Amino acid sequence: MTPNTLRIALGLVLFGAAPAAITAFPQQAFSDTHKPQAEQPAAMEMEDPTDAAQPGAMEEAADAEQPAAMEEPTDAEQPSAMEEPTDAEQPTASTEQSIAEIAAGDEDFEILTAAIEAAGLTEALSNSDLSITVFAPTDAAFEALPEGTLDELLLPENRDQLAQLLTYHVVDGEVRSTDLTSGEVDTLTGAPVTVTVGEESVTINEANVVTADIEASNGIIHVIDTVLLPM
């Protein structure tokens, strides 16, 4: 998607565009070999009813049955295998949010979200067909603007100017922190920002990247501490 197409998708009024199963183990079946063992006492009594050793033989038969009885608790312990559905209940990464949704759900982006709405860009920044990178100013960054600037930008009559300011924070394509190199990068307004990659920091113009590589369904967000102003 080219920058021009993205500008249209972002709804810049500047261009006259509209805003855009639990598995339970069966109990072990007992083989027929257990039955003769249960019948042995009777058979032995027929051979020698007075044999004093017969009680021991009966105990052996009883003992022979014990493993089967002991196996039942093993079956009862199978709920450990029933814990498998718990794994299925764990959240997955298949429900990624869009850039607009992430901003709306973060208390540090309340002003940014209001600006996106005022500029008519909410729908565009929710578009899953986009692939963009946003340098997102925090609320503190907006509050650091000269007094009255933000209120002025949020007025309906300044919608075009606000949209241009916001798209100056947007770059075509997904650019992760590992992809950033020092130099100029064109924004969707056509004006570039200057990226400076240091050993321990990255700046965009005069803004510091304070949080990098927030993944959205339609791009990447890098959080910055200063609002970028077109030169």
Please, could you describe this protein's structure?
This protein is 36% helix and 16% strand. With 231 residues, the protein is an alpha+beta fold. The chain folds into two domains: 3-20 and 99-224, FAS1 domain; 34-88. Strands 2-1-7-6-5-4-3 form a seven-stranded mixed β-sheet. The two termini are 26 Å apart.
Write the layout of secondary structure elements.
Elements: H1 3-9, H2 34-47, H3 54-76, H4 84-89, H5 99-104, H6 110-118, E1 132-137, H7 139-143, H8 149-153, H9 159-167, E2 170-172, E3 183-186, E4 192-197, E5 202-204, E6 207-216, E7 219-224
Parallel strand pairs: 1-7
Antiparallel strand pairs: 1-2, 3-4, 4-5, 5-6, 6-7
Helix pairs in contact: 2-3
Task: Describe the structure using short key phrases.
231 residues; alpha+beta; FAS1 domain; 2 domains; seven-stranded mixed sheet; 9 helices; 36% helix; globular; disordered N terminus
